[in-house]
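U., I forgot to send this yesterday:
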Amino acid sequence: MAIYGSGGNFITYIKNNEMLGVEVTLFWDGFDNGNNICQPGIYILYVEMFNLTGNKIVKKIPFVLSVKVN
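Result:
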């Protein structure tokens, strides 16, 4: 699982080559691979999964990184 910016630029990996259960909760701290804080905005979670028969499933899930405003 990887995170990309809205322009398609690679940001970071969340999980890589790990066996996961049916339901998974993910957490991203908002930092990129260089340990730089990312700007608020729209990002894409890119997921590649394989089912029990070996078929690959690809999902692109948009989400928003936001900041708390006092």
